[in-house]
Specification:
The structure holds 2 protein chains of 2 kinds. By secondary structure, chain A is mostly helical. Chain A has helices at residues 6-17, 27-55, 58-73, 76-91, 97-123, 126-134, 139-169, 181-192, 196-229. Chain A has a single domain (6-229), classed as MetI-like fold, CATH 1.10.3720. In chain A, helix 5 (97-123) crosses helix 7. The longest helix of chain A is centred in the C-terminal third of the chain and has 34 residues, at 196-229. The model of chain A has no long low-confidence stretch (mean pLDDT 90). By secondary structure, chain B is mainly α. Chain B has a two-stranded antiparallel sheet with strand order 1-2. In chain B, helix 2 (14-49) packs antiparallel against helix 9, helix 2 (14-49) crosses helix 10 and helix 9 (199-210) packs antiparallel against helix 10. The mean pLDDT of chain B is 88. Classes of the chains: A mainly alpha, B mainly alpha. Chains A and B meet through helix 4, helix 7, helix 8 and helix 9 of A and helix 3, helix 4, helix 8, helix 9 and helix 10 of B.
Amino acid sequence: MSMQFRVLTDNLPYLLWGAYPDGPLGGAALTVLLSAGSALASALLGLVLGIALSLLRSWPHLLLTMVLGLLRAIPVLMLIFWTYFLLPIVFHIDVPGVLSVMCALALIGGAYLAHSVHAGISGVRAGQWDAGLSLGMTRTAVLRYIVLPQALQMMLPSFVNQWVTLIKDSSLAYIVGVGELSFVAAQVNSRVMIYPAEIFLFIGLIYFVLCSGLGLFAGRVAAYFQATTT
Amino acid sequence: MNQIQSIMGQMLAPKYLAWLIDGLWMTLLLSAIVAVLATLLGIVIAAARSSRRRCWSLPASGFLSIFRNTPLLVQLFFWYFGVSGLLPESSVEWLNTVHGVALGPYLKLTWPSFELLCAIFGLSLYSAAYISEEIRSGMRGVAPAQRLAAAALGLNRWQGLRYVILPQAIRVALPPLLGQYMNIIKNTSLTMAIGLAELSYTSRQVEAQTFKTFQAFGVATLFYIAAIALIETTGQLIRRKQRLAAGAQR
């Protein structure tokens, strides 16, 4: 068993950015775009839902908890099926595959992050709320200027973990035929046939660099914040 | 109203429901096997990772880093397409043919398909990387004095781990461990990409055959939720029992 790396150098441009510029963008570039888009959307959704979870009381709170629990109970793949096959039927419009996958990833990521945001907000001591309110600030103002800045710093690690998961989950777009990294890899593999180990090791390496790179970067950022606040 | 009716349509025919139930059965079987193997492997990795010897801890953290920072789908592709290319041809042929062991006239054990073997192997390694970290943080939750006490009683390192540290660590780590078991159930859905006929695969099949998108995915989703809810309830029952037991001791 000797490894053949010619297959990688021959197909490198296709694996990295698909048929671009002659065709649609694909490969690793699309993986990065897809992950970045759903990371942003999941962060916003997580923030909004997490704040809602902290502010709502009684039955709306219960309802939101149930919806979030439901989203966390179904496999990402199943949610991609829902958004990919059902969105076009329900809205009678043609939804591009990338968008429906992004939608599913953002929903799941948002559902997980909402709980981290909620935990972060509850982690800020009650005295901070009291202090803000006694200064005559409204509840929203206390949340915006006092509680959230402290909570967000605590939440950074869970956001990064969720984003690493997002990069990995973006590979599921393969199932519905979106031409990101895993999809083009499977394409190259079925065209070349004889070097599967080389191809998937290389693809794994690209994902590894993306995921651990994000982790390292986040570690730097956290260290920087720690240095500036203490 | 009309639109809702057209989406909901009628129920699935019994034949297709049976397909989905077969898929659920495969999902549960695969999850159970993977949960056992990944827990055993996770304990070994956790022990290696917390070892003071670098020849143990270094490979363990390398394993964790590689398996946690690459997608499960790519790992499954690697095991399914890659390994069959690297293995000698005769062994692949052997793995792909059906082997059966007849145990009496009715019971017959059949060797699992290559897809199922790959799914078990790939999922177990991936899940072990996550489970080992839960077990390790559980072990850190056990007071260091417990280890010293075990040593004072004359237990060696392995015995201390087996009889003193692990039972307590598993109890501390139980809630996150159950979370990982839920993740295993959800992650089995990815094995449809290597052609294993589990729940997601069969739901896609039913959808393609009947065009009843809503019903096919709806039933599959309900099955997943039921399986997850079952683990959740089990966890609550165990916790209640533990609380009662702890109360009875006092």
